[in-house]
């Protein structure tokens, strides 16, 4: 049956994607939920929690507040906290119960903003999508609200990195490796969305000649930037020398001609399977096909827009889908928590990811940007 | 590797003098913060205490995320499954079908049929008016060889009726089936951690030839079922009282609540109630009292006026502990507590009168995000949250009372304080382990 998992994990949810995306930007994120979400996010999905004083909270919604539609409690609690904590912005993210009660995120955000004078977002996450959906929505919100409009594009090649969160890249230096790759290829990195950049740096994103979307969490911002500034974007994570070369050329092409395509490798065979987030997994598949000439199929377990995956790739939101898609596969590259459902005769290459196994294998998550060949 | 990119402005939160604090809620409710201290148990850990049982959670992804990884961290993935609620289920009105078919599907796929299945439904089911009775009837009909019990992950109900913690501790014993009672069998109920063998309770029960059942020591489902032979159910965790009363009503044994306390008279009173019910003679604990007094003096001689902070995760009576230590001369400066239990009212009033400068700090308040000291402090902390906020490696690493009770709790607490004073621990590493002391937790 769909929607069941006998033994595998669950991907981080949209609510946590909002938190992760906004974590370093000096805002205050409020998950509108009873209890539990805050602990889940800060324990399993946020490796920066101990070392960075980001303001991520939960509203502590109670049964009576939900039934009576008492939004005033939330609004006044946020206003009170904001008054003393002075965040740069406020973001309210939804969970299942506000979804059921028809909580009006837009209206409440407007009321909070009116009362506090602080820019406020209402992100209608439901807790029933993956982090990709929430993080993409949050990045898009930041882009539309905070990017300076009247800026000049740089005369030289420049780029924003869109879709950087620890859920896809952990805290193992992969974000810095992406910057290093781009700088070595002659790009000025304007902003990194959102690891290692301030809100001010993000607000300069309109200056970039092209955007690099390194995970699907960056697509919302990429589209907003295209709409606002006409900035083209290229989708791909720079893994492996050969694929990095393709990406570099696509970025230059896009910057010069406004094209947004990257050359796709698509070997007909499918002896290897990569399971994970769509864009990082597809990029890894490309890297393997280009460097080793072995066909790789992607099992995308998170939201992925049409057009990115190849015909042989599949969307596998449920355990049953994964089991079916792995039939006949000889090698599986996936988070260790997938191992129990992989074919017994297939070789298993563990590739831990925070978005699936949280902190359990954090120390074993490789920096594929710098060390794919290893 | 990590670098703070937005330095926060100074956002200090002042503590409240106990003299100015209200009972039972010293702090107004508001946005809530979660510290990195994770040692207390959650409903996954507790449910796993039933040997061989399989847990199935039926929730949205955001709710599943924490519990599925709790199970994975305790290496219990093979005893844990999920049914994921998606948005269309809220609209389709098929919630009952999703639970029944989802749970059935998982059971059919398990390599071995479990003797018991704990089905956890969530806030969503409550709000959708889901017919849980029908669900369990259907599941029991489909799988007559499996014992099902209803468990709940519905934190939205935490202020309505039984708390999720109380509910979970009651559900733990719902699977026990009536069997012939034995006069010499007792069950200690409601604890996550085993009762220490050195406690007076265990010494008394064993020296009187009583067979002691405790879920923490059950290795098989049959051993768990043997608990039902008990004629007496003993609880000492206030959150277990409701479960004990339910058990008394359902299986017919006698429930006895022996409160955890640091007050000698209250310890004796609890014990007197126990031995009276069991028809035994009250032991003479005067030597224990003397030993506690000696230990207090010895500990004070070592620790002296070292500032001490206590948090509520250490034991059910943080104010009772503060009172005992303050009366013995210790420099208890802070207690981290979000609310005060009814059982602690007398201690609260006593401390208000005698130690009005004692400070209360919350743990959940939004401002606490910035309250953890940046540099190591000289505090001796009792409890993980106190250790975190006061940034000290000199701390007593115990949660939920650690299986302590009575004079043994006094003596062991003082021993642990001495050890904490003399030796540093890896506070950062230790406090982030979920479910401290649970089997498999690393």
Give a verbal description of the structure.
The complex is a heterodimer of chains A (374) and B (442). By secondary structure, chain A is α/β, with parallel strands linked by helices. Chain A folds into three domains: 14-129, Nitrogenase molybdenum iron protein domain (Rossmann fold); 158-257, Rossmann fold, CATH 3.40.50; 272-371, Rossmann fold (3-Layer(aba) Sandwich), CATH 3.40.50. Chain A has 16 helices and 14 strands. In chain A, helix 1 crosses helix 7. The radius of gyration of chain B is 23 Å and the shape is globular. Chain B has a six-stranded mixed β-sheet. In chain B, strands 3-2-4-5 form a four-stranded parallel β-sheet, with helices on both faces. A four-stranded parallel β-sheet of chain B has the order 7-6-8-9, with helices on both faces. Chain B folds into three domains: 16-37 and 291-431, Rossmann fold (3-Layer(aba) Sandwich), CATH 3.40.50; 51-171, Nitrogenase molybdenum iron protein domain (Rossmann fold, 3-Layer(aba) Sandwich), CATH 3.40.50.1980; 182-278, Rossmann fold. Chains A and B meet through strand 1, helix 1, helix 2, strand 3 and helix 3 of A and helix 2, strand 3, helix 4 and helix 5 of B. Strand 1 of chain A pairs antiparallel with strand 3 (80-85) of chain B, so a sheet runs across the interface.
């Amino acid at each position: 049956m769909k929607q069941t998992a006998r033994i595998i994990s669950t991907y981080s949810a949209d609510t946590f994607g909002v938190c992760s995306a906004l974590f370093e930007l000096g805002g205050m994120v409020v998950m509108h939920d009873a209890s539990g979400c805050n602990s889940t996010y800060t324990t399993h999905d946020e490796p920066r929690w101990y070392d960075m004083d980001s303001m991520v909270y939960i509203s502590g919604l109670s049964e009576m507040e939900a039934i009576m539609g008492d939004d005033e409690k939330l609004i006044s609690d946020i206003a009170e906290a904001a008054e003393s904590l002075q965040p740069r912005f406020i973001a309210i993210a939804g969970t299942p119960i506000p979804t059921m009660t028809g909580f009006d995120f837009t209206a409440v955000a407007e009321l909070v903003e009116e009362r506090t004078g602080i820019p406020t977002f209402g992100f209608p996450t439901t807790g029933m999508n993956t982090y990709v959906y929430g993080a993409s929505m949050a990045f898009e919100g930041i882009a539309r609200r905070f990017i300076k409009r009247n800026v000049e594009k740089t005369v030289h090649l420049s780029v924003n990195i869109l879709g950087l969160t620890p859920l896809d890249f952990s805290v193992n230096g992969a974000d810095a490796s992406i910057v290093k790759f781009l700088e070595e290829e002659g790009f000025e990195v304007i902003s990194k969305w959102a690891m290692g950049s301030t809100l001010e740096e993000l607000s300069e994103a309109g200056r970039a000649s092209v955007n690099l979307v390194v995970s699907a969490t960056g697509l919302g911002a990429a589209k907003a930037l295209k709409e606002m500034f006409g900035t083209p974007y290229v989708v791909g994570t720079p893994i492996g020398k050969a694929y990095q070369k393709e990406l570099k050329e696509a970025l230059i092409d896009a910057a010069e001609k406004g094209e947004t395509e990257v050359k796709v490798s698509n070997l007909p065979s499918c002896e290897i399977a990569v399971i994970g987030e769509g864009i990082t997994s597809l990029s890894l598949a490309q890297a393997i096909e280009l460097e080793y000439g072995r066909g790789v199929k992607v099992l995308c377990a998170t939201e992925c827009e049409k057009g990115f995956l190849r015909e042989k790739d599949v969307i596998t939101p449920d355990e049953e889908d994964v089991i079916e898609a792995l039939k006949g596969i000889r090698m599986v590259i996936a988070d260790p928590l997938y191992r129990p459902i992989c074919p017994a005769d297939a070789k298993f290459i563990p590739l831990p990811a925070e978005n699936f196994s949280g902190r359990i294998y954090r120390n074993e998550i490789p920096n594929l940007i710098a060390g794919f060949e290893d | 590797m990590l670098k703070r990119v937005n330095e926060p402005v100074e956002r200090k939160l002042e503590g409240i003098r106990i003299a100015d604090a209200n009972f039972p809620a010293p702090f107004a409710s508001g946005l809530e913060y979660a510290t990195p201290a994770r040692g207390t148990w959650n409903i996954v850990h507790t449910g796993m205490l039933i040997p061989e049982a399989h847990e199935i959670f039926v929730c949205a992804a955001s709710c599943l995320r924490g519990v599925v990884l709790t199970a994975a961290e305790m290496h219990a993935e093979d005893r844990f499954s999920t049914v994921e609620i998606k948005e269309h289920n809220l609209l389709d009105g098929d919630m009952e079908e999703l639970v029944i078919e989802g749970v059935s599907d998982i059971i059919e796929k398990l390599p071995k049929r479990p003797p018991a299945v704990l089905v956890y439904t969530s806030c969503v089911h409550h709000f959708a008016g889901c017919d849980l009775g029908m669900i369990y009837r259907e599941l029991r009909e489909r799988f007559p060889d499996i014992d099902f019990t209803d468990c709940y992950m519905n934190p939205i109900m935490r202020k309505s009726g039984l708390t999720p913690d109380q509910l979970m501790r009651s559900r733990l014993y719902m699977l026990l089936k009536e069997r012939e009672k034995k006069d010499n069998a007792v069950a200690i109920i409601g604890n996550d951690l085993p009762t220490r063998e050195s406690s007076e309770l265990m010494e008394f029960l064993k020296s009187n030839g009583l067979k002691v059942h405790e879920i923490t020591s059950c290795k098989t489902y049959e051993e768990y079922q043997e608990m039902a032979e008990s004629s007496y159910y003993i609880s000492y965790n206030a959150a277990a009282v409701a479960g004990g009363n339910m058990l008394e009503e359902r299986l017919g044994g006698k429930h006895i609540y022996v409160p955890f306390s640091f007050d000698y008279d209250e310890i004796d009173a609890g014990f007197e109630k126990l031995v009276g019910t069991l028809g035994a003679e009250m032991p003479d604990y005067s030597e224990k009292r003397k030993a506690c007094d000696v230990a207090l003096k010895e500990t004070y001689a070592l620790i002296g006026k070292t500032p001490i902070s206590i948090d509520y995760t250490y034991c059910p009576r943080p104010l009772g502990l503060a009172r005992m230590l303050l009366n013995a001369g210790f420099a208890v400066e802070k207690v981290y507590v979000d609310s005060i239990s009814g059982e602690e009212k007398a201690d609260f009033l006593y401390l208000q009168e005698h130690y009005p400068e004692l400070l209360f700090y919350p743990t959940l308040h939004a401002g606490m995000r910035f309250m953890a000291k940046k540099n190591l402090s000289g505090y001796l902390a009792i409890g993980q949250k106190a250790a975190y906020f006061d940034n000290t490696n000199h701390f007593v690493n115990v949660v939920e009372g650690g299986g302590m009770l009575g004079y043994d709790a006094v003596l062991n607490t003082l021993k642990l304080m001495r050890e904490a004073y003399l030796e540093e621990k890896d506070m950062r590493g230790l406090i982030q382990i979920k479910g401290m002391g649970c089997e498999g937790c690393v």
